[in-house]
Amino acid sequence: MTENFYHLYTVSQMRARETHAVSHGLTLSTLMENAGRAASLEIMKRWDTKRTVILAGPGKNGGDGFVVARHLREAGWPVRVFGTPESSLAQEMAHQVDGILPLDKVDFEDQDLIIDALFGTGLKRSLENPWHILIAKANASGLPIVSLDLPSGVNSDTGEIMGKAIQATLTITFDAPKPGAFLFPGKEFFGILITKDIGIPNSNSEDLQIFLNTPELWKSFLKVPTWRDHKLSRGNVLVIGSSHMVGAPKMAALSARRVGAGYVTLMVPKTIEAFLQGSVWGEIIKSYKTSEDIEMALQSGRFQSVVIGPGMPPSLETQEIVKTILKWHKPTVLDGGALSSFENQKEDLFESLHENVVITPHEGEFLRLFPHLQGKLRIEMAKTASSQISATLILKGADTLIAKNGKIAIQPFASPWLATAGTGDILAGILGAFLSKKLLPFEASLAAVWVHASASQIVGPYLIAEDLIEALPQEMKCIFT
Ligand SMILES: NC(=O)C1=CN([C@@H]2O[C@H](COP(=O)(O)OP(=O)(O)OC[C@H]3O[C@@H](n4cnc5c(N)ncnc54)[C@H](OP(=O)(O)O)[C@@H]3O)[C@@H](O)[C@H]2O)[C@@H](O)CC1
Ligand SMILES: [K+]
């Protein structure tokens, strides 16, 4: 198995792994035997003898199923096998199993467990009948289902449901997890996911294309302060607000402080300066009348990062301010209104973006900038868009994607309770803080998305944005201990 445990393999990478294994003297039959044996051992570890039905498809996934059937029977389990082996390898494995019945004769009555070996990484098109009926029948049986490699019907690369999918209790995946296990809607079909090594030797040739966000990727860049530090050396963030929605930039600013930025300045229109002075404690309040005032603040060289977007209205004025900020090539977070302001001048924005920028749209904001990607899967949206711009992209959602030049990290978890007002502003603030601490935009984005999601789990149900900010120090402490 790969040492990069966070590495997710696409179908084409799995094929390359197969070829790599064969070039090291392994045969596909050996790999299939390894897969089936590993899966059967895992099943016997979790359950005592069960009356088991194995559903085996036409390809190598079905072949794995026949191997599982043989091992379970050798261990004394009563196993009924239904299948239509077509590929030569599946047939080779089927020959070692007696009494295989046709799939249209499947009956789950008086059975305890189903093994789903219908389709794996070779599923190419949407499933139709009789597969639909078979999958629906298995799902409706109420029995626990163990899927081999993937729940049949889930697209391995994208998490798309190809017509109909098995709702697994447990998925035993081989060599490495696949992206579809972490992307909605497919993610919901995997049940418990475990990975089994099947003896494919390590190779360093595969490019990291899609991987899971884990602290190992960025933790070492986040430093705790030492005696040499002072407030300005710990990151100085400039948050730009408007008079439109004052709470949003306030939350971004407070979040930046809660994750360790030493100094945060909130710059707002003159008209609300006095109001803000009375309502915040630790942020420095400054005011602006035009984008020139913001330019002067940036000219001072005091700020290591800029956050703009939370609470900003989509307008020409916002657009002007964003363009002014981008000229300075500072680490910058563009969120909400800072992005939507460019709905009709996308090219202006794309030309001004640079390597130090992170854009943080949710899907609605994203499609305003990339309308030609409407209807695409999220993973394709992120891949394509990030190849078209020089900034890092955080495509927010239940399975937030962080993308840069077509390379994609998937955030593996987040609380669904994050779907509430203000949480996006908090992400922008956290990101601003990490950028101010000199993390590179991609690593800062991974760290911010993780901290945000993980803090949401600390809070749990009925989370509101204010609770999330409160939980940030606890989450940061968890990361450092
Ligand atoms: N990688 C490795 O190292 C190892 C991988 N291993 C295992 O192999 C699995 C991949 O095997 P695989 O490539 O044979 O594909 P699989 O998922 O069995 O399906 C292909 C069959 O399904 C058919 N078919 C496709 N779509 C269809 C549809 N919509 N409706 C109907 N039919 C459809 C397709 O037919 P065709 O498209 O050619 O007409 C073909 O017959 C992998 O997931 C893992 O479990 C292990 O053995 C250990 C080593
Ligand atoms: K399967």
UniProtKB/TrEMBL annotation:
EC number annotated for this UniProt entry: 4.2.1.136, 5.1.99.6
UniProt cofactor note: Binds 1 potassium ion per subunit.
Record-annotated YjeF N-terminal domain positions: 14-206
Binding-site residues for AMP, renumbered to this chain: K396, G397, A398, D399, T400, G424
Limits of the YjeF C-terminal domain: 214-479
Gene this protein is translated from: nnrE
InterPro entries according to UniProt: CARKD, Nnr, Ribokinase-like, YjeF_N_dom, YjeF_N_dom_sf
CDD domains named in the record: YXKO-related
Cofactor(s) needed: Mg(2+); K(+)
Protein family (similarity comment): Belongs to the NnrD/CARKD family. In the N-terminal section; belongs to the NnrE/AIBP family.
Residues annotated for (6S)-NADPHX binding in this entry: 60-64, 120-126, 149, 248, 311, 362, 425
Protein name: Bifunctional NAD(P)H-hydrate repair enzyme
Described function: Bifunctional enzyme that catalyzes the epimerization of the S- and R-forms of NAD(P)HX and the dehydration of the S-form of NAD(P)HX at the expense of ADP, which is converted to AMP. This allows the repair of both epimers of NAD(P)HX, a damaged form of NAD(P)H that is a result of enzymatic or heat-dependent hydration. Catalyzes the epimerization of the S- and R-forms of NAD(P)HX, a damaged form of NAD(P)H that is a result of enzymatic or heat-dependent hydration. This is a prerequisite for the S-specific NAD(P)H-hydrate dehydratase to allow the repair of both epimers of NAD(P)HX.
Gene3D superfamilies assigned: 3.40.1190.20, YjeF N-terminal domain
Record's keyword annotation contains Lyase: yes
Binding-site list for K(+): N61, D116, S152
Keyword NADP in record: yes
Quaternary data: Homotetramer.
Keywords tagged on the record: ATP-binding, Isomerase, Lyase, Metal-binding, Multifunctional enzyme, NAD, NADP, Nucleotide-binding, Potassium
Catalysis performed (reactions): (6S)-NADHX + ADP = AMP + phosphate + NADH + H(+); (6R)-NADHX = (6S)-NADHX; (6R)-NADPHX = (6S)-NADPHX; (6S)-NADPHX + ADP = AMP + phosphate + NADPH + H(+)
